[in-house]
Amino acid sequence: MDNITPYSSPHYFIYLLLLLLPIIIGLWFGKRFKAYDFFATVVILITAFFGGNMTQGISLLCYVLYEMLLVFIFLSYRKKHNNFWIFTMFVILAIVPLVFVKLDPLLKNQTISLFGFMGISYLTFKSVEIIMEIRDGVIKKITPYEFGRFLLFFPTITSGPIDRFRRFQKDVDKVPSREEYVELLHSGVDKLMKGLLYKFIIGYFFGTLLLPKVQILAMSYRYQAPLGLSWWVLAYMYVYSMYLFFDFAGYSLFAVAISNFMGIKTPMNFNAPFKSKNIKDFWNRWHMTLSFWFRDFIYMRLMFTIIKHKWIKNRVTIANLGYVALFLIMGFWHGETWYYIVYGIFHAIAMITNDAWLRYKKKHRESIPSNKFTHAFAVFLTFNIVCFSFLIFSGFLNTLWFS
């Protein structure tokens, strides 16, 4: 049996819901069967990581043991000490496996891909969050079981969303009332149906039926127009953007739905991002758990450090440097190719420009109109800026110009 990617086909959900049935029945009657939760997790992990190719499963086990060792060594250290550089060293050590995986395509060295398994990014974010919050003193106690349960929570292990340990812990430590669980079931069914629509119908239409045809047409003008740019490249930009959203949002809805069936209120990942009125609003709606993670654990901490040490006095300059650092890191996280890096720089520039416009608008609010038309134009402009960034992100321009 080959490894089975979670949520990869409609048939997967039939087996998954059968596996979840005892959990659902238990929660309906006010019981959380921890032993069965563990059994269900093992079954899902075996099918996803230990099928015909066991490499991913072995990598996952090695990774979890490695991160667990780091967390509990740091927890023991933090009870008596709080040195910034020791803390920094543990954060760096926690992300080393992810760095190896991200460097592998660049170096073309298979020996460094020990930790190459689905979902390593999301697990790394969770591990780093725990280390950071141990350092902050908000996590004072955690058991190996709690750490493993949080890291290996199977609805979100391969595609997110990225939950926070304390929020997750509150849910798993209690059993929802009958009324609360009925609401969770209704929410889960609604999100599951919407996810099926997004992933297997709309996403299939844009990604499988339409995108390859548009790509062929766009490539056919490669040598007939300056830089190969034609209206079909514009069509590719919009089609790819729609595919990216509906496919990814579908996966996220599946994860939240299955979490709800298990009595867990996993946070949503998308909130109508194409209705955003500016680029900052977009990042508050798109892949929210990731953008909020980067905001809380990278951007805000960087801002605090710069202000605390008075390296730079001007708040606008500090914010702008924070945007550049934040989105460069996000670009490198996606991969070490020029289009991911340019994607990050593009969004940093967009955020800096947006902040400058908002400051200007605040000073001249009496002379700048604000009505339904200006709002609609802002949404339209933001949508097109975002879609252009997705064209960069797609790598199609690399294929068009360099392949």
From TrEMBL:
Protein name as catalogued: Teichoic acid D-alanyltransferase
Q: Where in the cell is it found?
A: Cell membrane
Gene Ontology biological process terms, A to Z: lipoteichoic acid biosynthetic process
**Which InterPro entries does this UniProt record tie to the protein?**
Ac/AlaTfrase_AlgI/DltB, DltB, MB_O-acyltransferase, MBOAT_fam
List the Gene Ontology MF annotations in alphabetical order.
acyltransferase activity
Query: Could you say which protein family the record assigns here?
Result: Belongs to the membrane-bound acyltransferase family.
Which EC number(s) does the record attach to this protein? 2.3.1.-
- Using the UniProt record, name the top-level EC class of this enzyme in a single word: transferase
Listed PANTHER family: ACYLTRANSFERASE, TEICHOIC ACID D-ALANYLTRANSFERASE
**What stretches pass through the bilayer?**
12-29, 58-77, 84-101, 107-125, 196-217, 316-334, 340-358, 379-402
- What's the superkingdom here? Bacteria
Q: In which pathway does it act?
A: Cell wall biogenesis; lipoteichoic acid biosynthesis
Q: Outline what the protein does.
A: O-acyltransferase that catalyzes D-alanylation of both teichoic acid and lipoteichoic acid (LTA). D-alanylation of LTA plays an important role in modulating the properties of the cell wall in Gram-positive bacteria, influencing the net charge of the cell wall. Catalyzes D-alanylation from DltC carrier protein.
Q: Name one GO cellular component term.
A: plasma membrane
Keyword list (alphabetical) reads: Acyltransferase, Cell membrane, Membrane, Transferase, Transmembrane, Transmembrane helix
Q: What is its main location?
A: membrane
Kindly give the membrane topology term recorded for this protein.
Answer: Multi-pass membrane protein
